[in-house]
Amino acid sequence: MNKPEDKHRPIRSFAIRSGRMTDGQRQGLAKHLEQWGLTRNDQLIDLDQAFGNTNPQVLEIGFGMGDSLAQMAKAKPEWNFIGVEVHLPGIGRLLSLVSELELSNVRVFHDDAVQVLQHCIAEHSLQRVNIYFPDPWHKTKHHKRRLIQPAFLELLHSRLAPNGLLHIATDWQPYAEHVLNTMQDQIFFDNVAADNTFVSAQDYDRPETKFERRGQRLGHDVWDMVFRSRPAQRSI
Questions:
Q1: What is the pTM of this model?
Q2: What is the DSSP annotation of 124-182?
Q3: Is 87 inside a domain boundary?
Q4: Counting beta carbons within 10 angstroms of the beta carbon of residue 184, is it exposed (0 to 12), middle (13 to 18) or buried (19 or more)?
Q5: How far apart are CA 195 and CA 191, in angstroms?
Q6: Residues 171, 215: Cα–Cα separation, whole Å
Q7: Which residues are catalytic?
Q8: CATH number of domain containing 38
Q9: One pLDDT digit (tens) per residue for the chain, 236 residues
Q10: How far apart are the first and last CA of the chain?
Q11: 39 lies in which domain range?
Q12: Domains: count for the chain
């Protein structure tokens, strides 16, 4: 039976999974989280100050084990990358990669991305948001937990700069269809694809991941979708 307060709790798009951390992941957290970690304290974070520059800001939501985020940060040192993840092993792995690759343009939140966006990120301060392989929540009763929902899109739009990009990738076709259907019914973004469907990952700098290569060997496809944030005056 649901508790009375449950109806007031926000619906989470993620489930906390328990799992062992390797020694490398544990060391990454111990050595580097204080240096490169950001903490939500319900006030806006000055990202220019956090990075020590005024470079464009990219936010990745749910970066998993951090391989793609680290690759993008290495390829584009003139951009700043902010990762948000709830699973500590992935954070430890990313921090180890940041150290190994000697990257200075990565910062990390161990937190819920919705809370980070609402409380820490200034309006229209992001040039890009990446959401790669979010949990598709396969069962119909769990569809309400999917991240891509109208209210979340409105929040993203308020944090993206005009003409900023939202890049979503999934290996679950019904989820890709859900994203396209949801995006067709909103007023905040335009699909950059000429046919309003899918784009090439390489055209938008998304690295191929180990997870993706494993899926391809099993015959799984991947769908990439990129949407451009409409100027605020059109979002009425």
A1: 0.88
A2: T-EEEEEEES-----SGGGGGG-S--HHHHHHHHHHEEEEEEEEEEES-HHHHHHHHHH
A3: yes
A4: exposed
A5: 8
A6: 8
A7: 135
A8: 3.40.50.150
A9: 444 434 434 545 444 555 677 888 888 898 899 999 999 987 899 999 999 999 999 999 999 999 999 999 999 999 999 999 999 999 999 999 999 999 999 999 999 999 999 999 999 999 999 999 998 855 676 478 699 999 999 999 999 999 999 999 999 999 999 999 999 999 999 999 999 999 999 999 999 877 788 778 888 899 999 999 999 754 44
A10: 40
A11: 22-234
A12: 1
Integer angstrom CA distances of residue 22 from 34, 132, 196 = 19, 23, 42
For the chain, what is the mean pLDDT? 88
CA dihedral 12, 18, 23, 28 (to 10 degrees): 10
Domain annotation covers residue 16:
no
The set of residues, in sequence order, having a beta carbon less than 8 Å from that of 54 and lying 6+ positions away, is 48
The shares of helix, strand and coil residues in the chain, as percent rounded to the nearest 5, are 40, 20, 40
**Residue 17 is assigned to a structural domain of this protein:** no
**What is the C-alpha to C-alpha distance for residues 194 and 197, in angstroms, rounded to an integer?**
8
Contact 91, 33 (CB under 8 A): yes
Inside any domain, residue 53: yes
Backbone torsions φ then ψ of 106, nearest 5 degrees: -130, 135
DSSP state, residue 59: E
Q: Which residue has the tokens 């469907």?
A: 197
Q: In 21-46, which positions are buried (b, 16+ CB within 10 angstroms) versus exposed (e)?
A: beeebeebbeebbeebebebeeeebe
